[in-house]
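Per-record layout

source: Salinisphaera orenii MK-B5
name: Cyclopropane-fatty-acyl-phospholipid synthase
length: 415
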Amino acid sequence: MKTRFFDRLIDEGTLVIHYPDGRTQLIGQGAPKAHIHLRDRRVLTRLLSDPEMAFGEAYMDGDWWPGEGGLMALFELYFANARNFGGSRILDIARHALRGIREANSRLRSRRNVQHHYDIDNGLFERFLDGDMQYSCAYFETPDASLEEAQRAKCRHIARKLCLKPGDRVLDIGCGWGGMALYLARHHGVDVTGLTLSDNQYRYACERAEAEGLSERVRFLQQDYREHEGSYDAIVSVGMFEHVGRPQFQTFFDTVNALLAPGGRSLIHSIGRSGPPVEDTKGWIEKYIFPGGYVPSLSEVAPCIEETGMCLSDLEVLRLHYARTLAAWNERFQRHRGEFRDRLGERFCRMWEFYLLGCQAIFRWGDLVVFQMQLAKRNDIVPVTRDYQYGPDPVAAAAVSDPAARWSADLERTG
């Protein structure tokens, strides 16, 4: 019987299978407990024939649906038994979040990959993101922080790490809808250039800059980072590096190094893997959500930074923040689900919630985190303690850069 396959996989918790004829089968015992309802018995054959892809596709098609506890209960059950799934792949969609085999991203392919996801419908993103349209991991400074507060905190935290002073030239690689670029110009008096490949994001960001009276200090370009030329005091990239693809890792960091002025510093905010690198595998999320992406382990990134000669001046790992961010996104998506169903269809809604909940699960129970990598041209450019990152006045830009100068002077006097 096909369900004996599950018997070998579930030794912690309970899977309840509901058949079309009303029969119920329990596999395992205890918590966590998850329910799966089958439209017909042939669904099991489909799931077992190509589990890596079929689990998500069958959900999109309505061939199965979760019961009590919803999709998250099923993902929790998977992670409770993840050690048993190494050779099988069933229920393995969440574990392969953002993994892709088609990682050799040429300029044309990169543009197509971006447009596949980000040019769906601005109205979709406006409904489930915060008001500033920040589409990356928020930073929850307090347990009761709202999504809007956490996204503003993320911008403040990153701005501090950039050690900005008024008049600095800043490049934002992968600027999205313009939120970070506009924040930096508005609060730190810097001049910002933002790069995106998305048609929708480019138009939206330009309109925002004009509406907020910041178009003289913020400009947006629809351009690949590999084509850009210039010299910048600071470079920021938030939620873009995971779309670069492994073959382009060295090119990315070489480009950052080439674009940074002699006293330059950079902050790269990227999804990362706390475990070892993974093999090339095309997964459900690569096909339907983020084509061409790959989430790196630190061991894959560090050698590329070393090759440039830049200093990795600070590394912070944000844990669980993205799980909370995704939970907030899904709550807002569900609030407007009826509207999305009417505009984009039920299959799209199932795809989107599977994506949001699957990613939430792997950030909560799996091995995905967020890396914030601070890079500098020299090891004396940024302060040598983290005090400046948590000061009481996050908008006082001048106070940020002074500690580094004081430390350098002390070294010269005592050296």
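summary: The chain has two domains: 4-92, 107-167+224-414. Residues 257 and 398 are 24 Å apart (CA to CA).
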